[in-house]
Design brief:
Blueprint (H helix, E strand, L loop, with lengths): L3 E7 L4 E3 L13 H14 L6 H4 L12 E7 H9 L10 E5 L11 E4 L3 H9 L10 E6 L1 H7 L3 E8 L8 E2 L10 E8 L5 E7 L2
Parallel strand pairs: 1-6, 1-7, 3-4, 3-6, 4-5
Antiparallel strand pairs: 2-8, 7-10, 9-10
Pfam families: RibD_C
Protein name: Dihydrofolate reductase family protein
Organism: Streptomyces chrestomyceticus
């Protein structure tokens, strides 16, 4: 069965964005550190690079490695919309959970108005176009992650050495302690750690 994987950048105080949706406060390090970190992320997770940036990064013809679907809330979709991009991940199937977004925003984007848990459970039961069980990337945000916590199988947390002070939490939902086990961790010279967690069954 497909897995739902939450991949997200997080501050030391558990924020994925500032109070106004800001995400430009994450320190990338010096030029060399930033380039090495970016190259590692892009090589390991090419699916997570927006379509408009893939050619410039040499990823235009790079096939998806693990994911064929992305799921996001309106807050995660909004930066692309504000830039005039209605299909930010054209190399994936795109779902946006929103009660206010127009359903015809883009033919490549499916707007889901309610019950994201039912959507994820349906998606998990599907096969990809090639008959394989490609995984689902949960792009954010915190409220959607909180609602989908019962179905999240893995976390990939990019932890940055910065305190936001306020903003959107990585999970925003009901009190529901859920244990995940660390399965892998990589550290970088810019102070970032990338940790993989798997839900304890």
């Amino acid at each position: 069965m497909r897995k739902l994987v939450y991949y997200v950048a997080v501050s030391l105080d558990g924020r994925i964005a500032g109070p106004g949706g800001e995400f430009d406060f994450y320190p990338a390090g010096d030029e060399q550190q930033a380039a090495a970190y970016s190259a590692w992320c892009n090589a390991r997770y090419p699916e997570f690079v927006p379509t408009a940036m893939r050619a410039a990064l040499g990823l235009a013809d790079t096939p998806n490695r693990r994911f064929d679907t992305v799921l996001m809330g309106l807050g995660s979709y909004r930066p692309a919309l504000d830039a005039g991009i209605t299909s930010p991940y054209a190399h994936l199937r795109q779902y946006v959970v929103s009660s206010t977004l127009a359903p015809d925003t883009d033919p490549a984007v499916t707007v889901v108005r309610a019950d994201p848990l039912a959507l994820v459970r349906d998606l998990k039961g599907e096969l990809g176009d090639d008959g394989l069980e490609w995984d689902i990337w949960l792009c954010g945000g915190g409220r959607l992650a909180g609602a989908l916590l019962p179905e999240i199988d893995e976390l990939i947390i990019k932890s940055y050495p910065v305190v936001a002070g306020a903003g959107i939490p990585v999970f925003d939902g009901d009190f529901d302690p859920t244990v995940f086990d660390v399965t892998d961790r990589d550290s970088f010279d810019n102070g970032v750690t990338v940790t993989h967690f798997t839900r304890r069954r």
